[in-house]
Amino acid sequence: MPAGALQVHHCAHPAQVMPTRGSAMKASVTRQGLTVRVIAGTRNAIIAMDLQDDKRPGCLGFSIGRMDMGPASSAPVAGEFRWLPNMLRFPSDLQGGGTTLTAPLQKFRWGDYTLMPAHRYRFTVVPRYGAPGQMMPALSPTEAPQGDGITLDVTTEDPTHDETFVHFNRAAAASSAFNTKFGDVADLAANTPKAKKARDWLSNGLKEALLAYMKKAEDNTWALHGAIYEFQQVELLQGLQEAIGRGVDVKIVYHHRHKDAKDTTAKKNDDAVKRAELGTVAKPRKADPQSAIMHDKFLVLLKNENGKLVPKSVWTGSTNWTDGALYGQLNVGHAVFDEKVAAIYESCFKLLLDDADSSTMKQALATLTPVSLTLPAGHQVIPILSPQSDDTMLHLYASLCEGAKSLLVSAPFALSPVILKVLSKKNEQAVRFMLLDKVGSLGGPEEVNVIEGDPSNSIAVATTLSSPLHDFQKKLLEGNESFHHAGIHIHSKIFAIDPFGSDPIIVTGSANFSNNSTVVNDSNTLIIRGSTAIADIYACEFMRMFEHYHFRAKQAGKIKSGKPMALSETDAWSAKYYVKDSKEERDRRLFAGTLS
């Protein structure tokens, strides 16, 4: 083994984060110059490494292994051990590879997107030294190392718990796995068992979670009151019909404004309501201005207590009730089980049910969810409802972004100039990741150049490929979706401010970060402060999508240049991660938790 090579021994009692409802499922160990941190979400985890500078010589990367330890609800049981995959190869060993055992990871973080919710996992990270085909330490293909590397245990979050009831669909990032599993399905829209299984796989529990949320209304002592922009998905509307059959008081408001002749959303909603026979419980939102969108997607759960309906919880997020929202776009559904928050949404629902005009809405919402430029400290959930009378909420978001040491941004449409002004400023202390549907979300060419040129910023833009999955999604999003977001693949609206710290802030909901969403449209946002569990879920899902599109762009660039992507046969791969203040250095230290 070369001088300076690292030899870290497996501890008798590996670092472990025990499953505690609502707690952060993170684990971190630093020993003999190596730091490993694992951040677990619901169905995925980020594995991050940092290597002391004097341990770099001769290091060819990291082998990463995983052992499944069973459900969190039972005692840990050692399961099968396997090395995580790596698509890249050493040029001198093209027959090798397939996993990080023989093709070590040459970067300082990796995402494992094949986990189960509420399960225990044991991860092992081993730095590898020497030469391709002769790396040290020698490791077994099927057994966990005994004496090399760092091993730590984590538990994924449980999305059925009230505190972590958050669900993301798979969207386009699952294309490779989808094509392997369902590449033989000729028509993904068909009413066949295999096609249905494929759609359910794409939903990733999002549709199922919303249906399960509806079933919490068990009988005639419960109510479901909702405001839904695109109100069309057959199974979801059937879920409401089943609730009515149980005696549940169901009331829905849906978008019915007519911006122009191209806006067919109202007709599609009407047709779906008629097919589902929901005309007696679903009411169209028609009040002026017609250019405004009833952009909400929330559902309040209420319980009859002593003859009075009491709001208990609310489901919200970015997910419209369409096939495109469930199987095509990236979306999130998020339920908050808090009576005060639910009561605010119920008050908004009543305004929408009365078809209040814009002036009435603004006046009422200014009292219902007042907005200031500062957030109170402490763990809390703050709803903000639109339309607002001014753009204070945009200035609040800009202020949060400006103060963030680390920032994740997911934006389907153009960001407000108020926010772009902050993102255009160089910040040597910040690390920012931006997941965009179109590069135009960053403004005009000049603003784009400034933001892209800042080493603080890493940007991924949605792109499409020709495959059965992408052809299916293209048809959903360009043929069947509302003209307001035809062709949109990134539909989640998220700010994650310092998501890996002790006081994270998550901004999520139906509202885009634009002037129209703030002062024109009916929409809503949640600001969640202090929940490290929620932040972990959002961060892991965000990075899943970000890495998919970022890798796709990098791969396309290599193909265009004629240079295939391959592993370095020396330790030169790591040099860029140690250039002071470079994008790569900040990335390495942020995820490993060593960025001050």
Automatic annotation (TrEMBL):
Pfam families: PLDc_2 (PF13091). Its EC number is 3.1.4.4. The keyword Transmembrane helix does not apply. It comes from the Bacteria. Keywords: Hydrolase, Lipid degradation, Lipid metabolism. The keyword Lipid metabolism applies. Residues 486-517 form the PLD phosphodiesterase domain. Belongs to the phospholipase D family. PANTHER family: CARDIOLIPIN HYDROLASE, MITOCHONDRIAL CARDIOLIPIN HYDROLASE. This is phospholipase D. One of its GO terms (biological process) is lipid catabolic process.
